[in-house]
Design a protein that fits this description.
about 230 residues; mainly alpha; Growth Hormone, Chain: A; membrane; transmembrane
């Protein structure tokens, strides 16, 4: 089965994947060298820290995982639905992500682990906002699923099986956007330090405002259409 996604979903997925790439690379290049978006590596390092008795590292890594989960929980409380649909409170969620990233900047500058925790929470908020739609799973903060889907598509192509081209295009979009965000984030970090997080914070805030405006215009058009009937 193919997928049918509105244009705003494609644009949002690409933008948010780029944001996640920026945030993750800033966390990785920072004082703790701690990636904040993908928890497989974080959980692996947590297990390693516990095994060698490094409770300081274990508390930091466990805190990042917990903060990501709490961010996802906040997103779930705000959106309250698993169906991707125009009209949900994505604007509020994006504003929350923007605020968390802005709050993380001064904490990072003072080498406080709370900066990484807020950045991880922002990524959890974002990732939970991406939901299932017509059988397609959209995740913007980590790429394992996207690379897996591409590998499955390659296997199907080698066997001459029909391909879900739009799903594969979505995977390519998210992977390339995350990668571009990581490159841009690394370059910005080299010039601006932790102020590089201003860029993803502004992008998510502006996207939230744009989404609210788009939703308002869409609702207005629907009312005009109903009135015309």
């Amino acid at each position: 089965m193919g997928i049918e996604l509105p244009r705003w979903v494609w644009l949002g997925a690409g933008l948010l994947a780029g944001v996640a790439g920026m945030v993750n690379v800033v966390g990785y290049l920072g004082f703790e060298h701690q990636a904040v978006t993908h928890l497989t590596g974080t959980t692996t390092l947590l297990g390693s820290a516990i095994a060698r008795g490094d409770m300081r590292a274990a508390s930091h890594l466990g805190g990042v995982a917990l903060a990501f989960m709490l961010g996802a929980a906040l997103s779930g409380m705000i959106i309250q639905d698993s169906t991707l649909r125009l009209g949900r409170r994505y604007g509020v969620t994006l504003a929350l992500e923007s605020a968390l990233l802005l709050a993380a900047i001064p904490l990072f500058k003072h080498e406080q682990i709370a900066g990484a925790l807020l950045a991880a929470m922002a990524c959890g908020v974002q990732n939970a906002m991406a939901t299932t739609y017509s059988g397609a799973v959209i995740r913007t903060s980590h790429l394992s699923g996207m690379f897996t889907d591409l590998g499955i598509g390659l296997g199907h192509a080698l066997r001459g099986m029909p391909l879900q081209r739009r799903r594969l295009l979505l995977c390519v979009l998210i992977i390339s956007s995350f990668f571009a965000g990581a490159v841009a984030g690394a370059l910005l970090f080299g010039r601006m330090g932790y102020d590089a997080l201003l860029v993803p914070a502004v992008l998510t805030g502006a996207t939230g405002v744009g989404y609210v405006a788009y939703r308002y215009l869409w609702a207005l058009r629907e009312r005009e259409y109903d009135a015309g009937d």
